[in-house]
Design goal:
The structure is a single chain. The chain is of the alpha+beta class and 134 residues long. The chain has a domain of 86 residues: Phosphorylase Kinase, domain 1 (2-Layer Sandwich), CATH 3.30.200. It is built from 4 helices and 6 strands. It has a 6-stranded antiparallel beta sheet. A hairpin with a 4-residue loop joins strand 2 and strand 3. The longest helix has 15 residues. The two termini are 19 Å apart.
Length: 134
């Protein structure tokens, strides 16, 4: 399922696609009430039809929402709009895991700098810099 820019999911407006993975698709969005950018992870209607898959999607949001750590994205909300279930979360700019792995190997000093960064996080749209994948 592809969402087009301008599509509304609750109080969020889709701005464009970021990527797709095993669970669903991720879009750049904007919270129209607060004016902040967000990442919107969705699963489509065909996947919503499977109660176990929807339960796993909701559990993913619940699990991440109770954690408060600089290396874990913040969950802003969850919801359903029509036949689309979504998780709205903090958007973190950066390179993708694919880009990082395709680049040159890390040197020890670079790896230590990368590890010690307090604002590096893992999310579906950033490099592998944390302990949880959303």
């Amino acid at each position: 399922m592809s969402l087009t820019p301008g599509t509304r999911l609750g109080t969020y407006e889709v701005l464009g696609a970021i990527g797709a993975g095993g669970m669903g698709e991720v879009y750049r969005g904007r919270d129209v009430r607060l004016g902040r950018l967000v990442a919107l992870k969705i699963i489509a209607a065909s996947e919503n039809a499977d109660p176990a898959r929807l339960r796993r999607f909701e559990e993913e949001a619940r699990s991440a929402s109770v954690l408060n750590h600089p290396n874990i994205v913040t969950i802003y909300g969850v919801g359903e709009e029509g036949d689309v279930a979504y998780i709205a979360m903090e958007i973190v700019e950066g390179r993708t895991l694919r880009d990082v792995l395709a680049g040159p190997p890390f040197t020890i000093p670079a790896a230590l700098r990368w590890r010690s960064s307090s604002r590096t996080r893992w999310s579906p749209h950033t490099p592998p810099t944390s302990c949880i994948a959303i």
